[in-house]
Structure formats: structure tokens, C-alpha cells
Amino acid sequence: VTHSIPACIGSMMINSKQLDNESPVSIFAVNKCYVTVQDGTFFDGSGFAALVREGYKVRSDVNITLEFRTTAVHGVLLGVSSAKVDAIGLEIVNGKVLFHVNNGAGRITATYEPRGTTSLCDGKWHKLQANKSKHRISLIIDGNLVQTDNPYTQSTSADTNNPIYVGGYPADVKQNCLTSKSSFRGCLRNLVLTKGQQAELFDLSRTFDLRGVFPHSCPGAEH
Q: In total, how many domains does the chain have?
């Protein structure tokens, strides 16, 4: 076995003596245990998860679905970029969800703004679907559809070749379709990227870089 156990361990005794786990000699990637937990991945607001080291190619079409839960009004959800301008980005800014796409000719944005007293930063689960089909983009939050016009109809392919960054991104990495630098704080689950008929569910415990992110369980409420 070469990986750590995704679990809580307590009341450990060695030779009838209880170990003090409150003041360890050293500690690495160990978080507190929660009284109540839910499925998902917990982001503590300081880091990110990086997927597809060799680079993800968005090209003409992609459909992104995920569920999120947060009490923060700012936070990066997902970004895929290129060294040039082509990119896509999903983020929460001032309590709104923004889906940005640049196929090379210029950035377009679909914005979902909650109405009335409704908040997306209420600590409850919300379902998000972001769709790019050639030059058209749409955003569906909890079943509510937002579409936007694109003046750059001739430009249809986002030629990205960088990793998928979830919940944030490193300071030295350029993201052409994100305005926020704030790492996401909260929980994410069921991240699926679909191209054509091929749907890929991303397991956030199988990333090549993970900072401030705890797969397998979310606290039942913000702690």
C-alpha cells in the first residue's frame, strides 16, 4: 500500500498509553475530522487541484457539470487555458457565477445572477452546467438557463493545451479566462467533462498536484 487512508483515526493506544495527536512532532496533509460528513472534496480556500498533466484540449465543444457548496462570494471553480488567448473559465465573483470562453477572437461571458434573496453562497449544494458548442455558450444553475450572444461567430475552437485547474491555480500559471485569483472555499462533487458522447468523471483524489484540497469527504457544515 503506497497511499494514505481516507479516514478518521482516534483514541490510538500503544502499550496501554494513549497517543497525544493534538501536538504531533510532525504533520503532513492531515486535517481535522468532522462530526458530520458528506461525499465530495473539501477546498480550504488556499489552493487548487490540477488534472490532466499533459493538457486538456477543449476545442469546439465541451459540457461541464459539477455541484458546489460554499459560503464565500468569490472563488475559482475551474480553468483551462493555453499559452495564447484561448481558454475557458468558471468562477464565482460577487456571488454570481461567470462562464468565460475565448476561442481566440475575444472573451465572451455568460453570467448567472441569483434573483431576490436567493444566494448561491448559502452553504447549500448547487448544480452547475456550462456548455460550449462552437461559438455558442450557455450556463445552467439549478435549472436556470443563461445564454449570451457571441459577436465572434467565425471563431469556434478553444485550442487549450494546459492542465485543468479546479478550485484555484498556482501564482505562476496564466489563466486567460479567469478574473479572480481567489481560491475556492467549500465543497465540490461530481465533476464531469463531456465531449460528444464521451463523458469523463474526474476523481479529485487522482490529481498530479493537490494543495489545500481534501478528497473523499466534506464537513457537513462550514466549520
A: 1
